[in-house]
Each structure stands twice: as C-alpha cells, then as structure tokens.
Amino acid sequence: MQALDFPGGKVTYTPALRFISESSEKRVPCYRVCDDNGDIITGSDVVNRHGDPSNDGHNILRSPEAGEDFLLRHFNRTENLECCYGEVSQSKSLPTNALEIRLTTGKGGKCHTQLPQAVGVAYSLKMDKKEACVVTYTGDGATSEGDFHAALNFAAVMDAPVVFICRNNGWAISTHITEQFRSDGIVVKGQGYGIRSIRVDGNDTLAVYGAISTAREMAIYEQRPILVEALTYRVGHHSTSDDSTKYRPVHEIEHWKMARNPVNKFRNWVEKNGWWSDAGEYELRKNLKEELLQAIQMAERTEKHPLRDLFTDVYDLPPSNLCEQEKELRESINKHPQDYPFDIPLYDKL
Ligand SMILES: Cc1ncc(C[n+]2csc(CCOP(=O)(O)OP(=O)(O)O)c2C)c(N)n1
Ligand SMILES: [Mg+2]
Asked: Does residue 138 sit in helix, strand or coil?
C-alpha cells in the first residue's frame, strides 16, 4: 500500500472521502473491581502492591462539603482547622488551598493553573534522572481551560513523568459537563495528545488505587505522562457560596450519596475482610470528635490577622485601586461595625 512519508511517521493513503467521526460508537468503559456492595467482581484486575492497605499513617481530612473526602500527607487536623480559620492563609486564600500552597504548587484557589507547572517539575525530575514522578489533580472544570491542554501537550512531547488525575464529577459549580465538552469525557482527550489514559470508577477505592499505582509505575519506569479520569459525583455544593439544589434534582444527589456512596462501599469491603467493625467505627468516631473539638478550640483562640493583611503581599507597593478599596472598607467598618467580625484587629500591632 502506498504511503505518504511524512515527518513523524508514514501515513497511508485512502481513496475514501471520510471524516473521522466526532465520537466513537462506544463510550470508553470504566475500570472497577468492586460491585456496589463492596464485593470483588470475579475476574477483575485487583492491584495489591503493598499487601495490607490499611492505615499507613495518612491523615484523612474532610472538606466542608460532604462527599469530598481527601487525603493529605504531613498535615494534622490542627493545621487543617487553622487553615479554615485563616491562620495559615492569612485570610488570602480558600481554606484548604492554603495547605496546597504549603505543599508545593501554589494553587490557592485558581483552578488548573498548576498543571503546566506540574509538567515543568516532572521534566526537571527527568533531567535529574530521579526515580520519581509528579502527580497533579484537577476537576472536570479545569479541562475547559487552556492550561490543561497546554500541560497535556507539553507533557506528551517532553515525555514528562507526570500523572494527571482528573476527577470528573459531572459539574463545574453549576455548569453541567454537557455544556463543557462534547467529547466522551476527559479520558479521550489523552489520546488526542498522545498520552496513555484510563477511565476509572472514582467511587471504587480499590479500582482507583489500582489505576493510580499502575499509572505511577508507568510514569516513573517508562518515563511518560499518564492521564486518569475518575468518574464520580459531587454530592455536596461546590463551596459554601453554592446551592447545588438550584440546578440539579435532589433525588439525583441522594442517589449518589446513598446508593453509590464510596465510603460505605469501601467500608463493606474492609469489614468483609475482618479488618473493621462497628466497635472500631464507634471508637474512631468518638476519638476524632474529641480531637476535632480540641483543634477547633485551639484555632478559635488564635489571634486573627489584622485587616491590613488582606491588602499586602501581592504587590511590592499597593496600586491606587487597592489603596482605595482599603480606605472604603475601613470607612464601611466605621459606619457599620456590627456587620463585621469583631475579632479582626483593624490596625497592626506596634
Ligand atoms: C483560573 C480560574 N478560573 C476560573 C475560576 C472560577 N472557578 C472556581 S471553581 C470553578 C469550576 C471548577 O470546576 P470543578 O473543578 O469541576 O469543580 P467542582 O464544581 O466539581 O467542585 C471555576 C470556573 C478559578 N477559580 N480559577
Ligand atoms: Mg467538577
């Protein structure tokens, strides 16, 4: 068969005037290993790299929104609470983002801007011949922005050891995914950039573990980027300023919260293996509650940052519009002191 000798590889000719379809007939399947009851599905590829997957010293923290549990290494509950009370962020960032700033990427409330940076870091690991990779997380919302695409392409051409984990939960605040993209989700975008990709059931802990630990091995030992799309649902509001019942039916939220609850499913699996029980659950909840209450009390006792801190640190010399805003804010506080938190010092300590 005749072929066009084109830069990057030969391309075969075809006499057929045929456009590539905008979508494949079948949607990309979703890897899962546990059924809804937490039973392992016969014949599924279960990855078990380290034996007992029980407690390895991570702290499991809970964001203010139900259903958005996350795992952060090296942070304890007190630090998380301090973030919520504005201590770590100096009131400049969303609560949990402050932890992320301290972690590495300097995200701090901006969606997806960390992605090209993550690829840059991965490329530097490659240059230094480190046996390591970068893992970067994003929501479905981020994939509608340019940085996501720049990052994927950059990672592909540089063979950067980076794992992109995209949590596709169906919504970017109130924007449904059908208003965000016409592709079969996010997983197919990987192939468009020449990146190996997988779609996984984000509510199946074992499947997520299997997909990501395998992705990590490939990223490090094959020196390549990997894209993981985890399908899940945001059962909570996007943030405390969002009311998701305004744009989606409550029964849909309830269905995901109850019938597809990933924590219950994983708990069933752990219990069936004899590693967990009601008594253990009761004890843990009791201890956590005590710890949390203590952490809240400590965070509440911490002195708040002065008002001025809201306006510092971005510019060396604050521009005139920022000075005006500070002046307006101070005037407003003077006029309506009852509408402002009483414990924020209005002036810096001398
Ligand atoms: C650079 C940037 N652009 C826009 C925003 C505004 N914004 C905040 S959250 C969000 C949607 C994020 O979508 P997703 O990650 O899917 O969030 P979810 O609703 O699932 O929590 C947008 C556009 C932002 N924070 N940063
Ligand atoms: Mg989302």
From this structure: strand
Residue 32 a catalytic site member:
no
DSSP string computed for 157-206: HHT--EEEEEEE-SEETTEEGGGT-SSSTTHHHHHHHT-EEEEEETT-HH
Give the pLDDT of residue 241: 87
Helix, strand or coil, per DSSP, at residue 286:
helix
What pTM was estimated for this model as a whole?
0.83
CA of 266 to the centre of ligand 1 (A): 28
Ligand 1 atom with minimal separation from the 113 CA: 1
Q: Please say whether the beta carbons of 229 and 185 come within 8 A.
A: yes
| Whether 247 is catalytic | yes
pLDDT in tens, 6-58: 999 999 999 999 999 998 889 999 999 999 888 999 999 999 875 433 333 33
For CA atoms 238, 57, 298, 107, the dihedral sign is: negative
111 backbone dihedrals φ, ψ, rounded to 5°: -70, 135
Catalytic: 234?
yes
